[in-house]
Amino acid sequence: MSEARPFKSQSLKSACSNCSVLELCLPLGLTGLEIERLDTLIVQRFKVKKGAALYRAGDPLRSLYAVRIGSFKTSMLSIDGREQVTGFQIPGEMLGLDAISTDLHTCNAVALEDSEVCPVHFAQLEKLAQELPSLQHNLNKLLSREIVRDHDMLMMLGNMNSDERLAAFLLNLSQRLNERGYSSSSFVLKMRREEIGSYLGLRLETICRGIAHLRDLGLVEINGRDVNIQNMDGLKQLILGCHRQFS
């Protein structure tokens, strides 16, 4: 993987109020004046090339990062050097929350495609949150969302078989993309199958068998990275009772 660092776009000033993912990001529910104050903390959006790291485990916490364009994966390395994918982030979601407790990042964040983020200086964000209760409330919601996501993952790994895990992953991604105005039934996977397997705790061959099984059931057709969900209700029925979010 490339060690290239993010590169800044030329003279690109952020504007939260004009952002396409405003309703899914940190400014959610803030007034116009409050958004303007938050916007002053974002000096400049910058781009991250595909395969480049936004930050790595052990880097000091400087900013939280709102994904504006593109997508990322977060991952950790085991003692023997194996990668464990811990999440996939898309526009409107935050990166960097892992470092709040220790002031050091505990994982790597790598761009899955050419992407763009809005950095929010964390110390200044904390100070502004003390003055704006609505902003503090949004920060609390972001942290709570991370806890819920961890609980969902534990439930998935503990209660679901391999086909159910894959179905839940596709439904989750479908739902998140739909919230951003994209099709819920046809989309492109930005991550490799090996990365999906790492995230779901499954081997590559198990992921491939699961894709074939979902196709045979008439639920999902996956060609390369192109996904076409053919029977959304049937896919939900597959995991009914296993996962609260899609029941």
Which tags fit this structure?
247 residues; alpha+beta; Jelly Rolls; Arc Repressor Mutant, subunit A; 5-stranded antiparallel β-sheet; 4-stranded antiparallel β-sheet; 7 helices; 21% strand
Structure notes:
The protein has 247 residues and is an alpha+beta fold. It is 37% helix and 21% strand. It has two domains: 7-153, Jelly Rolls (Sandwich), CATH 2.60.120.10; 160-246, Winged helix-like DNA-binding domain superfamily/Winged helix DNA-binding domain (Arc Repressor Mutant, subunit A).
The CATH H-level superfamily of the largest domain is Jelly Rolls
Average of pLDDT: 86
CATH fold call of the largest domain: Jelly Rolls
Report the top-level CATH class of the largest domain.
Mainly Beta
H/E element sequence: EHEEEEEEEEHHHEHHEEH
- Biggest β-sheet description: 5 strands, antiparallel
Q: Give the overall shape, derived from the CA principal axes.
A: globular
Spatial extent as radius of gyration: 19 Å
Helix content: 25-40%
| Beta-strand proportion | 15-25%
Summarize the structure.
By secondary structure, this protein is of the alpha+beta class.
Secondary-structure map:
Layout: E1 7-8, H1 32-39, E2 46-48, E3 53-55, E4 63-69, E5 72-77, E6 83-89, E7 94-95, E8 108-111, E9 115-121, H2 122-131, H3 133-159, H4 162-179, E10 186-188, H5 193-200, H6 204-216, E11 220-223, E12 226-229, H7 232-238
Antiparallel strand pairs: 1-2, 2-9, 3-8, 4-7, 4-9, 5-6, 5-8, 10-12, 11-12
